[in-house]
Amino acid sequence: MKLLNFAIIKITICLVLGVILGFYININPTLILTISCSLFFLSLVIHFLTKQRIKQPMFLGVLILTLSCSLGVMSVSFHDHHNFQNHYTKSILNKPDSLLTVKFRVREVLKAGNYYNKYIIDILETNNKIVTGKCLLNVAIDTINKRLNVDEIYFTKTELKELIPPLNPHQFDYKNYLSKKNIFNQIFTDNSKLLSLDKTKHTLFGFAALLREKINIKLNLFDFEESELAIINALLLGQRQDISKDIYNSYTQAGVIHILAVSGLHVGIILMLLNFLFKPLNYFKNGNYLKLIIIVLILWSYAVIAGLSASVVRAVTMFTAVAIGMHLKRQTYVYNTLAISVFFLLLIKPMFLFDVGFQLSYLAVFAIVVIQPMLEKSWTFKNKIAHFFWKIFTVTLAAQFGIIPISLYYFHQFPGLFFISNLVIIPCLGMILGFGILVIFLSLINLLPDFLADTFGCIISLMNAFVSWVSSHEAFLIKDISFSLPQVLISYLILTALILWFKNKTYKNLTFLLVLILLSQSYFIFNKTNLPSNEFIIFHKSRYSIIGLKTNRELHLYHNLNAIENEKLITDYKIGEHINNIKTDSLKDFYFINKRMLLVIDSLNIYNTKTFRPNIILLRNSPKLNLKRVIDSIKPELIISDGSNYKSYQDRWAKTCENKKIPFHQTSKKGSFQIKY
Quick check: helix, strand or coil at residue 482? Predict the structure, then answer.
């Protein structure tokens, strides 16, 4: 491909491969540093020895690409907090779940759960020893005390608990998600156990949080509705914590959730506004340099205010390069700009590569750059207004082509009306952002008139209403789509082949496209004919019992829920296992699992095993029984306790099984119980 002729793109691809390699293979930081330094000096020596040549040797290019790959590995290793000598986990290795005195600073406020306010904190000390590291803090929701603020420092005596892995198959792995952010433990506490030590702001995050708080205090003086304020915070300040679940789902189902994350679209509009605002500086001596410095500083200040999320950092990095290109009066080649921003971002924050928003942003931008011009040229309009909307439509369509495979893989749904919502909202987004910046600025200097605030609130409400109307047409929302990683890779290969074919209709490109289509069909046929193994599963569900029997692609569920159709854990299992049909029934007393028998003992504690001998016992709904006597009489191979039992009962049963040397599977700790056959 001609695209790969650009050195920075090759180097960036190798860096990405290095980050992936470093993530999956743990390499000693000293070793990879030695390798990287050796490669660097060897490349330098070869360059000086051969710089007189017209053409550099291929070996030098290979060395530089290998160096880039090693830099990716080194970046991961150096940013892995497990490798930090003073990380707090080093002090609790031999003391899991023991009480510690912890001093911490609040780093970030997260969206609250049903029972806890959630924060990311920097641990400063444990047992009076200075340490580093991030942790998840869960503070019980209290209507009396206010929520904690960024940069406030607290002292508490608590346990550092392990993050809980998913307890059912194919559920979202929150533990893995946080580990990529170097968060490995969590704290559960309440406000009464927190002692405030210092309220002085120390970091940029604290000053940014203070500014956001001040903006919200000013906006609260006007008649903005709660939903309007939530959208304003998301659109302009990059904070989505206050968006309700209903509004968030509406934007997701309408296919416009991307506008609620500050990204390239927002930063690009801000750059154009700043470029216009500071244009008069060009008339002064060295004014263009001053203009560039001011614009770059404002862009990065905005990134800090917006919380330095992956999407905003990526966007600001890319548009910083664009601003420099505009200053140099050179046409910035967009592929190189994208590659440069990826390269520096992954050097500084390698785990951004595994951030879903980061992946979606780059794929969308890349697709717009490559595909949109081809789509726009396919149909021309003489009318300027019609051509404008056609251009918006092709931008939206191109972006969707770029993100559909990976969206299906992560979210398992496709909004059929995405083009309608984007066609209406995207042309108005520039006006909304410009209006919003003006509203915030005037509110901060106490010059915001009521009619201006009311007008802006009305615009936000109209946008919410329109998105809600689009999302209400559920017939156009395709849900529960099973899409595997191999299908994602094949889809992008086919998309690449199609682009190559449309740009250059050669025999070679056509052959490449047809081979990929055959590969896709072969994979589809293989999945259809290669039936999965049968499985017996006891799901974990707090206060309830759910048992599943999977035969090929059919799932038979036995449960005591009022309704199971919209149960998230079942939906996740259905998608992950490619289930075509689900049948439901009430719970039974016995289950036969490939020549093994499972006996269910519930709260009635009625069972008769004189004529048979079960291999496995399932305890559910907290039966009052003498487990020692049950074990002596039945002699089971295994005892299982699901989520419907009291914790005190389960603790007692666990001790009994330990004394009797019988395996005990507690789903609330070990997750669902599965037998494949």
Answer: coil
Helix (H) or strand (E) holding 47: helix 29-50
The answer to whether the CB of 74 falls within 8 A of the CB of 347 is: no
Measured at the CA of 676, the angle between CA 672 and CA 677, to 5 degrees, comes to: 155
User: What is the value of pTM for the model shown?
Assistant: 0.83
- Can you tell me the distance from the alpha carbon of 397 to that of 418, in angstroms, rounded to the nearest whole number? 9
Cα separation, 622 vs 646, whole angstroms: 6
CB burial readout 578-588, b (16+ within 10 A) else e: ebeebeeeebe
What is the amino acid identity at position 280?
Answer: P
Q: What is the pLDDT of residues 470-524, one digit of tens each?
A: 888 877 888 888 888 899 999 999 999 998 888 888 888 889 999 999 988 988 8
How many helices and strands (H and E) does the chain possess? Answer: 21, 20
Please give the DSSP secondary-structure letter assigned to residue 532: P
Q: Can you tell me the mean pLDDT for 200-228?
A: 83
Q: Pick the closest to residue 555 from 169, 41, 39, 54 (CA basis).
A: 169
CATH for the stretch 88-202: 2.40.50
Helix axes of 287-305 and 204-219: crossing angle, nearest 10 degrees: 80
Q: How far apart are CA 395 and CA 398, in angstroms?
A: 5
Using CA atoms, how far apart are residues 14 and 18, in angstroms rounded to an integer? 6
